[in-house]
Design goal:
Length: 164
């Protein structure tokens, strides 16, 4: 199962302003995980037309109040994946996430716009795809991919986008 991971898209009115590579990958994935700051229900609807969508609310999702949970834990291809927008400050993050989601093999988060792809406490994958639309102080905009199968994490990567 190929999962496209997004966060902090900050788009209104649809996904036409997502970079072309992201839109192409959305058309070839099996599921989409969005770690918040979607901003607009038209974006949710457009993403859901590509693949099953699993999304949480971010701090900029006031217009989506009541439509998205603050966090979720889902099973994809037999792998437990937790999703939250704000994972808190970097110091102590790995331990906090393990305590908050003790059974999750993968924790996806957003908010910082800083890509993060590392094994945290007890081998839990801590994964922030960055933002495909607002790189802020990062050298590139980015998004993520998880490959899951037969109850295990097969692959994970951050995909960087060429500067516009």
């Amino acid at each position: 199962m190929r999962v496209i991971v997004l966060a902090d898209t900050h788009l209104r009115g649809g996904i036409e302003r997502l970079p072309a590579l992201v839109r192409e990958d959305l058309s070839r994935c099996d599921a989409i995980v969005h770690a918040g700051d979607v901003v607009d229900d038209a974006v949710l609807a457009a993403l859901a037309r590509h693949a099953p969508l699993h999304a949480v609310a971010g701090n900029n999702d006031a217009a989506l109040c009541g439509q998205l949970p603050g966090e979720l834990v889902i099973e994809l291809a037999g792998v437990s994946v937790a999703v939250v927008h704000d994972a808190g400050p970097r110091p102590g993050r790995d331990g906090r996430l393990r305590r908050r989601f003790p059974d999750a093999e993968v924790v996806v988060y957003g908010h910082s716009h800083i890509p993060d792809n590392h094994l945290g406490t007890s081998g839990q994958l801590v994964f922030n795809p960055g933002s495909p639309t607002q790189r802020r102080r990062q050298p590139s905009a980015s998004y993520g991919e998880l490959v899951l199968g037969a109850g295990r994490l097969v692959g994970h990567r951050i995909i960087t986008l060429a500067a516009a």
